[in-house]
What does this fold into?
Amino acid sequence: MADQTSQEPYDEGPVAALRRIAFLLERGREDTYKVKAYRGAAAAILPMGEDAVAAAVADGTLRRVDGVGASTATVIEQAVRGQRPDRLVRAEAEHGGPLVEGGEELHALLRGDLHSHSDWSDGGSPIEEMAFSAIELGREYQVLTDHSPRLKVARGLSAERLARQLDVVDAVNDHLAGTGFTLLKGIEVDILDDGSLDQSDEMLDRLDVRVASVHSKLKMEPEAMTRRMVAAVRNPRVDVLGHCTGRLVTGGRGTRAESTFDARAVFEACAESGTAVEINSRPERRDPPTRLLELARDLGCLFSIDTDAHAPGQLDFLAYGAQRAEAAGIDPERIVNTWPKQRLLEWASS
Ligand SMILES: [Zn+2]
Ligand SMILES: [Zn+2]
It folds into this structure.
């Protein structure tokens, strides 16, 4: 491989190269430990400034920087020398192509994404990194929806932490003023056993968008599960029903069967109350399954095509959901993230 060193010029600098490699690996669903090295190295050299990084390359001290390892040092050295890093060339070749065939027209209509996580709960990247990546993907907005308190394994946010997060979102938006992009305030709130929500009404009212999902007792018997879900989607504070069956079809966490409930009753309640049914784009979820997607379509539901991204590269997963929605013949007008932001916010606050 050594003789395949890229001779292509590259002038975007080492931080951009490391971030792009990480983005592509996440997009290609590579193991997170592989990705961490690149994100860690980018974070390590960013505060040094370009001149200091170049000096460290020149005098051979780059490897002494905490967070820079053998492979990331090579990326940095090549980028500093104005040469497209080999690792970047390889990542582009392996993971830079279209994710899926079909749905391109609908994908182009999507203005934003209503479901994403940061490292405040179980995501892998800071809020601002998620926002920057959403901007780079051409999004008008991104809704930050970290988990609610009861989901302890995912470091769900207490009311106090959520309140602090909202201040951070304000600060990020101040910083991004003039870009035309808005980071919207949201939550993925747990639907509790009785259908109530795992966050106070006061906090929920401070948010722009609320996704409600079942994360516990997924095997509840069907009648109780139906009551639980119907109560949640009829709650006027709920805007989106997240990954409705909870199934996992592939991936590192293994597979998991669908929850069983009266889908007709749940989707009729969604249609009546204006709650959108999420088309969860994560390849391991593909939720709802096609037969339920078609049922929700026939019952007149609104939809939201969401990434449920836990890392920046996963923000590109909208392509998967767009492909499924288009295949199911869902009218783009019924997909809330094709709407202008103002209309979306009015719908979510009503
Ligand atoms: Zn979830
Ligand atoms: Zn989620």
User: Anything to note?
Assistant: The CA atoms of residues 10 and 81 lie 8 Å apart. The pocket of zinc ion (ligand 1) is lined by residues 188, 213, 215, 242-243 (CB under 6 Å). The longest helix spans residues 159-175. The chain has a mean pLDDT of 96.
